[in-house]
Structure formats: C-alpha cells, structure tokens
C-alpha cells in the first residue's frame, strides 16, 4: 500500500494513455500537397527564435506569414501538431540536402520552442525523442534522415543552433553517429568540401559558410580556419590516410 499525500492522485503502474497524450491539434492553413508524390524521408529540426510557444503558434498559423511546421514542442514538453504528416508544411524554404531540393516535399518539420541562446529543456528533449521514434517508425526514416535547418540552408539558417544536443540524439540512434578518427595532417578545403558533400552538405556556398554550417552541427564551439578536427565528425578516414 502506497501512502499518498492528500491531493496527489494515485497512478497505476500500467502505463495509461494519459502518459503519452496525443498532440494538441492546432491546424495551420499554411500547407499544400507534397509534390511528385514524395513521402517524408527527412526530419528537419528548427528552433522558433521566439520567447513563447504561443507566439510561435500564432505565427505558424497566420496565413500572411506563409510558414508552418508539422509539430511544435514547447519548452515544457507540450506537443502541438499544426499540419498532417501526409501534407507539405512550409518550414524548410530554399536549400538542399544530398543534392535534393524542395525539402518541404521530402520532410517533416519540427519546431522547438527555444530562443536560440539557451539550452533545450529535458522535458522538451524527451518529448522530441518520443516523437522522433513515432515518426521514424511510421515513415521508415533512418537516423541519417534527421537534419537541422542549418544543414540544408547553410549561411541562411542557423537553427536548431549551437545549444542543441545532437550527440544525445546520436547516442540513442535518432541521428547518424559522427566519425571519431583523427583528421588529416594537411587540412585542405577541397577535401573538406568533398567529405561534407558526401555527408549531405551539398548546398552551393563558399568555403567559409560551409565550414560554419558543418561546425554548427558538430563543433559549434570551434573558431578559426579549417583544422584537422573539422574532418573527424565527417568520417571516411580512408580518404585521408
Ligand atoms: Zn528553421
């Protein structure tokens, strides 16, 4: 017999449906059909860069703003769904990944309620992991398919940003694991570009922008010119030994 403090309801040991509530359905008018019969093969993570989830929802549902996402996760872990997964939400914009454009037709967009200058809460991260598990299962999306907005739109977008814990998602198999081999002694931009392209960073940008975008994903603390450690997360040690 468990003694409960007054006012605290007893919880069953059997998981109830209220432990994993359905997303709050808050439909946005900003969507269309996926083009060319495409199905989601990518998941794109964003931060809202706003101070409150409510303000972000308002914008993502404003016809004049012409932006949306499939999901928004609040800092407290609350989950809203704004667009059906079958439909094309307007979150990614111009850019490409692995040589493919129209990322909106190929992806599911998840907005994280975060201004961009502070850590993501545990409640929010665990809700994200739950959601990723569901989406990846439903659409057979592999860990390589989880990317950040800045990965596909280098120089134009910077989210989910330097405070996002990619390694946490890598450890759990939600994001592709980074390489861990030492980089080449002679760090050449051409080889770096080839490896970055191979990893998916194919958008047409200059060397500096490419380096900044790859660092934002893997080494957001790094500064200065290209160095051997920038090659490490991209793997493919055979190419430089
Ligand atoms: Zn974004």
UniProtKB/TrEMBL annotation:
The keyword Transferase does not apply. Keywords: Cell wall biogenesis/degradation, Hydrolase. Pfam families: Amidase_2 (PF01510). Residues 28-161 form the N-acetylmuramoyl-L-alanine amidase domain. One of its GO terms (biological process) is peptidoglycan catabolic process. Its EC number is 3.5.1.28. Residues 12-31 are annotated as: Disordered. It comes from the Bacteria. The keyword Lipid biosynthesis does not apply. It catalyses: Hydrolyzes the link between N-acetylmuramoyl residues and L-amino acid residues in certain cell-wall glycopeptides. SUPFAM superfamilies: N-acetylmuramoyl-L-alanine amidase-like. GO terms for molecular function: N-acetylmuramoyl-L-alanine amidase activity. PANTHER family: N-ACETYLMURAMOYL-L-ALANINE AMIDASE AMID. This is N-acetylmuramoyl-L-alanine amidase. The lineage of its organism: Bacteria, Pseudomonadati, Pseudomonadota, Alphaproteobacteria, Rhodobacterales.
């Amino acid at each position: 017999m468990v003694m409960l403090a007054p006012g605290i309801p007893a919880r069953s040991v059997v998981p109830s449906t209220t432990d994993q509530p359905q997303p709050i359905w808050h439909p946005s008018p900003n969507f269309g059909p996926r083009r060319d019969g495409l199905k989601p093969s990518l998941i794109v993570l964003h931060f809202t860069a706003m101070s409150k989830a409510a303000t972000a929802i308002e914008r993502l549902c404003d016809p004049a703003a012409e932006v949306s996402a499939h999901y928004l996760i609040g800092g407290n872990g609350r989950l809203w769904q704004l667009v059906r997964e079958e439909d094309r939400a307007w979150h990614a914009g111009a850019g490409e990944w692995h040589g493919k454009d129209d990322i909106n037709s190929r992806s599911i967009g998840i907005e994280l309620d975060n201004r961009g200058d502070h850590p993501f809460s545990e409640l929010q991260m665990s809700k994200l992991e739950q959601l990723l598990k569901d989406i990846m299962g439903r659409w057979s999306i592999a860990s390589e398919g989880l990317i950040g907005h800045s990965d596909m739109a280098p120089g134009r977008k910077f989210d989910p940003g330097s405070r996002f814990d990619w390694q946490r998602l890598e450890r759990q198999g939600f994001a592709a694991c980074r390489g861990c081999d030492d980089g080449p002694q002679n760090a050449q931009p051409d080889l770096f570009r080839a490896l970055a392209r191979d990893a998916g960073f194919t958008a047409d940008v200059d060397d500096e922008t490419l380096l900044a975008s790859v660092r934002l994903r893997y080494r957001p603390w790094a500064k200065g010119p290209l160095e051997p450690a920038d090659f490490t997360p991209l793997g493919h040690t055979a190419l430089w030994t």
